[in-house]
Amino acid sequence: MTQSDSLNRPYEECGVFGVWGVPDASALTALGLHALQHRGQEAAGIVSFDGERFHQHKGLGLVGDVFGDSRVMATLPGTVAIGHNRYATTGGTHVRNVQPLYADYEFGGLAVAHNGNLTNSATLKQALVKRGCIFHSSTDTEVFIHLIAISLYTTVLDRFIDAVKQVKGAYSLVTLAPDDGLIGMRDPLGVRPLVLGRMPGHEQGNGGWVLASETCALDIIGADYVRDIEPGEIVVINNDGLRSLRPFGDQGGRFCVFEYIYFARPDSVLEGQPVYEARRQIGCELARESAVEADVVVPVPDSGVPSAIGYAAESGIPFELGIIRNHYVGRTFIEPTDQIRNLGVKMKHSANRPVLAGKRVILVDDSIVRGTTSRKIVDMVRAAGATEVHMRITSPPTKHACFYGIDTPEESKLMAATHTLEEMAQAIGADSLAFVSFDGLYRALGHANRAEGARRYCDACFTGDYPIELVDKEGNLVA
């Protein structure tokens, strides 16, 4: 079961974090998860290891809700820890699905945290259940737990490699085991991100290691960025240092392009590309491709801000904060009736009337999924007195569902899959609507055009070009 039926914009699945060889590892992990809060707000968990025993705590809610009590942190001793923020794309919002998942094996304990989505998890689960495996969660991450358990290999690392060779999908993993230590991995095409960092003191040979979904999680704990984990690479960190394995060989890379458009924090650097600059350049490309006479350029906060800055700079039209976001809105605190749902956008965004009244407005946003939110925002801007509203989108039209860890509706519910550009503009109430072109998107990322850039990125949600086999979908299986 996915949660996409309620979505009006895409959501990323999760954030992962791990540290090795640092005092107060759990406290640093909680800080790292706080920096990665944008990647998942439904639940958080940490598993630590003190050299003899594993300790774990997890719960539903934001990182501050789950780990804000010092008494909780005191139950997580050790110099090694992994953590996870969850946004559910498989499995419901239940404590049993909160990661990291932990299991006791004949060789000892093991914990795993996973970002992404397996495209053959239902197929594997069906086979594992037939073998007698008992699943305690409904998340695809548990497949790794059982594949490791039934592996005939001797060492934990060999069992881990045996397991990942059986799965298909887009994923980043951090795993914790007593003997092999902290293990990090990206899928063979590197669709989901994972970066490597070092804690202060590494120049003298005594700084700990860090694994995280984004560099912003390194910054919050003062760690130095070392490099991105390569597609298909496994890194093993223990008392002997760090070693790298590549059991899949070099299959190239297809990093998720939507990380640059929306998911990653703007202060992160992914695959060597600063996210803020990528978004600013997309705005510049939009201004060149779809210029229109207007008085102000207004971002839809927050992901639209850097692109709106780029659009304004390139077009010469003033940038203004015509929409203000309420950063303290979480889940609706009263019964979600239809009337309350209709007020949802106003709870999160409010119009800055003095900026908008009597103005021709260019609204810059990251995407249009169902179109419901875009319609409400356009209506809100018009109600504030705007004379014209022109919508500019920093991604190509989203026409296809994602099966790689981004929660999007099925294709029949994607506005761009069922409407022409003119029909979309009319449906959301905009005077004009334009999306960045494929070539414009890839120029913003430093490539000549899509033909060159698409060899490095996954853009299946725009093109339907799925680089990883959709085993469960083709077999009509649901995880």
Descriptive overview:
The chain is of the alpha+beta class and 479 residues long. It has two domains: 15-253, Glutamine Phosphoribosylpyrophosphate, subunit 1, domain 1 (4-Layer Sandwich); 274-327 and 336-463, 3-Layer(aba) Sandwich (Rossmann fold), CATH 3.40.50. It is 30% helix and 25% strand. It has 20 helices and 25 strands. The strands form seven sheets. It has a seven-stranded antiparallel beta sheet with strand order 4-3-5-2-11-10-12. α5 packs across α6. The N and C termini lie close together (7 Å). Pathway: Purine metabolism; IMP biosynthesis via de novo pathway; N(1)-(5-phospho-D-ribosyl)glycinamide from 5-phospho-alpha-D-ribose 1-diphosphate: step 1/2. Keywords: 4Fe-4S, Glutamine amidotransferase, Glycosyltransferase, Iron, Iron-sulfur, Magnesium, Metal-binding, Purine biosynthesis, Transferase. Residues 14-240 form the Glutamine amidotransferase type-2 domain. Catalyzes the formation of phosphoribosylamine from phosphoribosylpyrophosphate (PRPP) and glutamine.
> What gyration radius follows from the Cα positions, in whole Å?
23 Å
Helix content: 25-40%
Low-pLDDT stretches: 1-7, 331-336
Major β-sheet annotation: 7 strands, antiparallel
Q: What class, by secondary structure content?
A: alpha+beta
State the helix count. 20
| Morphology | globular
So what's the CATH class of the largest domain?
Alpha Beta
Overall pLDDT, averaged?
91
Report the CATH superfamily of the largest domain: Aminohydrolase, N-terminal nucleophile (Ntn) domain
Number of strands: 25
Strand order of the largest sheet: 4-3-5-2-11-10-12
How far apart lie the N and C ends? 7 Å
Domain Glutamine amidotransferase type-2: 14-240
Keywords: 4Fe-4S, Glutamine amidotransferase, Glycosyltransferase, Iron, Iron-sulfur, Magnesium, Metal-binding, Purine biosynthesis, Transferase
Catalytic activity: 5-phospho-beta-D-ribosylamine + L-glutamate + diphosphate = 5-phospho-alpha-D-ribose 1-diphosphate + L-glutamine + H2O
GO molecular function, one term: amidophosphoribosyltransferase activity
